[in-house]
Write a structure and sequence with these properties.
With 321 residues, the protein is of the alpha/beta class. It has two domains: 4-100 and 292-310, Rossmann fold (3-Layer(aba) Sandwich); 102-283, Rossmann fold (3-Layer(aba) Sandwich). Helix content is 34%, strand content 15%. It has twelve helices and twelve strands. The chain has helices at residues 17-21, 37-44, 60-65, 84-89, 102-117, 120-128, 157-167, 183-189, 196-202, 222-227, 245-253, 292-310; strands at 4-7, 25-28, 49-52, 71-74, 93-95, 149-153, 172-176, 191-193, 205-208, 233-236, 259-262, 281-283. The strands form two sheets. The chain has a seven-stranded parallel β-sheet, with helices on both faces. Helix 3 (60-65) links the parallel strand 3 (49-52) and strand 4 (71-74). Helix 5 (102-117) crosses helix 7. The radius of gyration is 21 Å and the shape is globular. The protein starts with a strand and ends in an 11-residue tail after the last helix. Bound molecules: (2R)-2,3-dihydroxypropanoic acid (DGY). Residues 54, 76-78, 101, 286, 288-289 line the site of (2R)-2,3-dihydroxypropanoic acid.
């Protein structure tokens, strides 16, 4: 009998057809919206594998409701939506999609950094509102990027890809990571490992790429903001809750930092009150991995992980930990 895979949301090419071609019985939510908890638990009943999204919370309640599950394949590199320890206690493997979305996410981090620094959001709003009356010497002046210091928080694959792109802007790079990266990587990137407080004090731009967990939640709180330069720009393509967003609204409003570029939100998809009315923040709708190449490769990697685990082999990309 074919193994059953439940997919919680329509996927881009090669889509769920790939799972069917691999010989699985595919059950799927065909509506392009997140499932409610009840729908998720009902839908996944009797499945061997679950292919889920970062918006699906997979905790002990879900795991207990589906004793048949052997693998959870998360369509994301971040996996804070899954209680990995509880899954593994039950013998369920959890997999993610590292590598394939590195470039797409690093590109988006740079798009936000450039947009926030050069007032692209405010400029676009002005043009669309019909309020632009023409070129002006004092209009929407931004700050330079070349020769400035970029602080990278989380020096995994995406942080490193962001650092590589910074070399084109002749930037100094400082980074903070749970573990120092290999000396040859530091040398290739020209990156200096520093304590977080030093990074906060020295950086003109800060880009967040750390995983979200109990240690990193609200890493950017009032204390962290108080150490940052008033001219600095903060970019978040990691996870929203790395930042205390209520406090971010205060510091952006009071210009205690210059600007921010956000792709992810603490209460996604709800936007924290106050952010929408600020002109010095660029807001993207969680597009980090949203390139056709990355999203297609994420499908392939999710399916490969399912196939390997259900065949009794090790996952290709198990969730770390
Ligand atoms: C991820 O993979 O964790 C990204 O946030 C998805 O875009």
């Amino acid at each position: 009998m074919a193994h059953v895979v439940f997919v919680t949301r329509p996927l881009p090419d090669p889509g769920i057809e790939l799972l069917a071609r691999m010989g699985f019985e595919v059950r799927a939510n065909n509506e392009d919206r997140p499932l409610s908890r009840e729908e998720l638990i009902a839908g996944v009943q009797g499945s061997d594998a679950l292919l889920c999204m970062l918006s699906d919370r997979i905790d002990a309640e879900v795991l207990d409701a589906v004793p048949s599950l052997r693998v959870i394949s998360n369509y994301a590199v971040g996996f804070d939506n899954i209680d990995v320890a509880s899954a593994r206690q039950r013998g369920i493997e959890v997999t993610t999609t590292p590598g394939v979305l590195t470039d797409a996410t690093a590109d988006l981090a740079w798009a936000l950094l450039l947009s926030a620094t050069r007032n692209l959001g405010a400029g676009e709003r002005m043009v669309r509102a019909g309020e632009w009356t023409g070129w002006a010497p004092t209009q929407l002046l931004g700050e330079p990027i070349r020769n400035q210091t970029l602080g990278i928080v989380g020096m995994g694959a995406i942080g490193q890809a962001v650092a590589r792109r910074a070399q084109g802007f002749d930037m100094q790079i400082v980074y903070f990571n749970r573990n120092r990266v290999a000396p040859e990587i530091e040398t290739a990137l020209g990156a200096e490992f520093v304590p977080l407080d030093d990074l906060l004090k020295r950086s003109d731009f800060i880009s967040l790429h750390a995983p979200l967990n109990e240690q990193s939640r609200h890493m950017f709180d009032s204390r962290a903001f108080s150490l940052m330069k008033p001219s600095s720009v903060l970019v978040n393509t990691g996870r929203g809750a790395l930042i205390d967003e209520a406090e971010l609204v205060n510091v952006l409003r009071d210009r205690r930092i210059a600007a921010a570029g956000l792709d992810v939100y603490e209460f996604e998809p709800t936007i924290t009150e106050g952010l929408l009315s600020l002109d010095n923040v660029v807001l993207a709708p969680h597009l980090g991995s949203a390139s056709t190449l990355a999203r297609g490769d994420m499908v392939r990697l999710c399916c490969e992980n399912i196939a390997e685990v259900l065949a009794g082999r090790p996952a290709v990309t198990p969730a770390p930990g």
